[in-house]
Amino acid sequence: MIIREIFIMATRSLGVNKLRSWLTILGVTIGIFSVIGVMTTVTAIRSSIESGLNVLGSNTFQFVPPTSDLSGGGKTVKKIRGRRPITYSEARRFIQLMEDVTEVITPRLSTSNVQATYSKQKPLFGLQIVGTNPYFVTTNQFIIAYGRNLTSEDVEAGKRVAVIGHSIEEEIFRNETPIGKTIKFDGQPYQIVGVFAPKGNFVGINQDNTIAIPITAFLEKYGGRGRYVGIAVQAPSQETLDEVIDRATQVMRRVRALSPGEENDFDIFQNDRLISAFDKVGNVVATGAFIISAIALLAAGVGIMNIMLVSVTERTKEIGIRKSVGAKKQSIMIQFLFEAILLCLVGGALGIVLGILGGDGAATFWFKVPIIFPWAWATFSVVICTVIGLTFGLYPAYRAASLNPIEALNFE
Questions:
Q1: Among 122, 166, 358, 411, which is least packed, fewest CB within 10 Å?
Q2: What is the rounded CA–CA span in Å between residue 10 and residue 332?
């Protein structure tokens, strides 16, 4: 009952000066909002990456152009740009030399912002065409919903056939099956032979807008000059992955005619490197958010101490009356601590709500990732708010509890 009464008195005291209380709460809200908002966005994107490790299939790695982010730095932009791309002829040679290790190897060329037209319907924009082979579905974790996959015969003959993504099926072929229909991509007709199962978004990229065609048909339409052929390789098992990577690296160096002293002019990408690269960026962003929020919370803490000291001065006579009728020093101290903690918790609650709304909103709008609730960060924020309230409210509470009742009663 005593705690309940103290709590009621604390809330009433804060309600007397609403504007002053809300301005103090605002400082805490800004501090919590900054860290919760950023960490919600970062956590949502990371969750999308981890749950979407189907960018590459299991036990799979890919040869990509060398970049400072993936290769660990040390290369200038000029030097990177000067690297010659892997050509399709080199990719075919690589596949031949790796036949004794694994047959699941996928050459890949792609182009984006493709336009699709069918019959008299409105054109569909923003699609991605991938020139590849039958193993694309394995190395990139796509599933054929119905119809068939590309075949080796399609690739050898350069047939104009395509497997389309789920979004394309829904937008263009709403009331009919697309299998066997002829659709034009960038003005080139292709016969649809299959449809991918829904795959969803991955860090803002709609994977259901993908169109797979034979890589030979891609080269005929778009050419290969200046294009870097990405090569995905799947090891037979997780246990042999490192061994296959070493062998593939040696074979690629041989195909590229690199001398023993030359460094690799290609890089190898794996799923875990995507996580590692994002972690580096996320850590930098998180550090910045912590610094900003720490400054804001420090300022809010000082504001709380200031408002509580002012409150002690304004309520000196009230404290004197309470002491004269038997109020204990402990009760007065708890009341003022309650007020300080309540200010922080209200500000923290608002900061958490606004931070989650802002963070999830940004992550959903910009990166199309699922909404999350960062329980760990919300709990951490509540603890921090409580600690700030205790830390910065302790001195004003002690000062109020230590007032001499006679002097307090005579205070004007």
A1: 122
A2: 10
For residue 130, what are the CA distances in angstroms to 97, 107, 169, 212, 218? 24, 10, 17, 5, 8
Going from N- to C-terminal start, the domains of the chain cover 2-51+275-409, 57-269
pLDDT in tens, 149-205: 999 999 999 999 999 999 999 999 988 899 999 999 999 999 999 999 998 776 667
Distance CA 301, CA 353 (A): 20
Q: String of b and e for 122-156 (b: at least 16 CB within 10 Å)?
A: eebeebbbbbbbbbbbbbbbbebeebebbeeebbe
Q: Residues 206, 167: contact at Cβ < 8 Å?
A: yes
Helices (H), 223-270: 241-255
Contact status, residue 398 vs residue 352, Cβ threshold 8 Å: no
Q: Please give the DSSP secondary-structure letter assigned to residue 371.
A: -
Does an H or E element contain 145, and which? strand 144-147
Q: Tell me the three state secondary structure of residue 174.
A: coil
The residue behind tokens 């504007």 is 19
Confidence band for 85, pLDDT divided at 50, 70 and 90? confident
Q: What is the pLDDT of residue 50?
A: 59
In degrees, rounded to 5, the angle at the alpha carbon of residue 28 between the alpha carbons of residues 24 and 31 is 140
Neighbouring-strand partners of residue 106: 232
List Cα–Cα distances, 94 to 66, 75, 205, 281, 354, in angstroms: 18, 25, 29, 34, 53
